[in-house]
Amino acid sequence: MTTRKIEINFDDANALKTEFKANLIFGGAFCANTTDMESGDICEIVLNHPETEDTYSINARVVSVVAVGPQKGSAFAFLDFGPTDKSDIEAFINAEKPSDPAGKTGDQPVFERIKNLPMAQLQKMAREGSTSERVALERKFGNVVWADLLKHTRITLPEIARIARKGALPLPLLDKIVSNAAWLQSPLVKRALLANRRLNKEQARRILQTLPRSELLLVPRQVSYPSSVREAAKKILHK
Fold first, then answer.
1. Among 14, 49, 52, 11, CA closest to 32
2. Does the reported pTM lie above 0.85?
3. Cα of 115 vs its chain's centroid, Å
4. For the domain with range 4-94, which CATH number is right: 1.20.1250.20, 2.70.98.60, 2.40.10.220, 1.20.1090.10?
């Protein structure tokens, strides 16, 4: 049996912030489009950011289902929700849209400024630039700037998670993320790493051993994780 994935979309950033104040901040979520589940069912909640195109996923349990009427929908409670998860969700919600006017210097949007910059300046911007500059650099240049982005002292956890899930991430950079104890405290970063098919057995074991048992029990059913990660979780559980 696999864990069902429930995607929750939002019309705009205000709708996402409203959901945060009403439910997410307390470790829960509501989906009006899902009524075919039962209380106690375990699933994976995926929040889709309406502006940045980022996603945030977390395991949850169904706590109530209303099939008809104005309150139609399902309510979910996140599993093992703690302060780090709350911080991750806040960072996810408040991430800047790279093409937003706030990302301009003078009259030039970020993407216009970076497209013709010399490599040395791109790398310097990746190490020292603003959030909107970093996001734009990662989206336009990808692996060219990953190493420098990971050197930025104020890189956010959603940015790290976005890089961590890249299948083309060089092994030294993958190991750099896995070996960073502060980054590995983030459930968002851990889930991104576990979904990366380049993760080796030792790296997977190190990450899995940081999971609470209730979350570790769900890993073998997570089809978004490689089979090697699911098998590693089974071995840990059977010890």
1. 11
2. no
3. 27
4. 2.40.10.220
